[in-house]
Amino acid sequence: MFEKLDKMNFEIAEAHCDGPCGVYDPAQARIEAESVLQLTKKILDLKMPEGDDAKAHAAYHNTLTRFVTIKEARAELAKHHLLVLWTDYFKPAHLEKYPDLHEIFWKAAKACSSCKQEVSLEHAQELMDYCKQVHEIFWATKDKDVAWYTAS
Predict the structure, then answer these.
(1) Which runs of E-coded beta strand occur in the chain?
(2) Which of 70, 79, 140, 151 has CB 3.0 to 4.6 Å from 112, enough for a Cys bridge?
(3) Taking a C-beta distance cutoff of 8 angstroms, is the pair 24, 138 a contact?
């Protein structure tokens, strides 16, 4: 089967961006950023068990590890969704109208990295704030009034 495939000539298909369908929505980044915020809160609220109960300590470390792993994955997904908007959706005309757009996205991407590196409510909230700014600008470029909301 692979020999037959190797002998076939395929045309290469290319797209100008990640989403040639043209469907973009900053909600994807918001959902991931909100997960980062909520997991950061859960990590900070998690209490290490007192005493020497091995099962309790194992459960604590298991839960902490799961929360940190998920927080970091969600921060990476938030960065991905933000960068797709930045590099694929926004055009030079948008920059003319919103000259701080590059700085907002740069700071948002840096906040994603900070959320991965640390357990900081301040950075998690900053990420949410940048996502809100992106949300507002994005929908303004489409002449739509879409309310900002959070799931939690």
Answers:
(1) none
(2) 79
(3) yes
Structural domain including 113 reads: 26-141
- What 8-state DSSP symbol labels residue 126? H
CA-based Rg of the chain, rounded to a whole angstrom?
Answer: 20
- Its sign, for the CA torsion 122, 116, 81, 105, is positive
Residue 43, domain CATH = 1.20.120.400
Q: At what angle do helices 101-117 and 27-45 cross, to 10 degrees?
A: 30
> Is 75 in contact with 112 (CB distance < 8 Å)?
yes
- Alpha carbon distance 107, 95 (integer Å): 16
Q: What is the pLDDT of residue 16?
A: 45
Residue-level pLDDT at 20: 63
